[in-house]
Specification:
Layout (H helix, E strand, L loop, with lengths): L17 H11 L4 H24 L8 H9 L1
Helix pairs in contact: 2-3
């Protein structure tokens, strides 16, 4: 039986726009703030990867990168 790899966590110091940080804390609460930022970072990395994929395929930028990735995978 295999077990999923344990996620390693690190503590980082970042500078954020105060208004955005306070809005996020108000949305999720201070205890879930780090998890919220981690999820937002993961989502941005996916979007960045999809943009890079489209760029490397030599296609014109498209409005819906999700649709373009799905069409290419089919």
């Amino acid at each position: 039986m295999t077990t999923p790899k344990e996620q390693t966590r690190g503590k980082y110091s970042v500078t954020l726009d105060a208004d955005n940080a306070e809005r996020a804390k108000a949305q999720v609460g201070p205890k879930a703030f780090s998890a919220y930022l981690d999820k937002a970072l993961k989502n941005q990395l996916v979007l960045d990867g999809m943009e890079e994929y489209v760029r490397l395929r030599g296609k014109e930028p498209v409005d819906d990168l999700f649709e373009a990735a799905e069409a290419d995978a089919a």
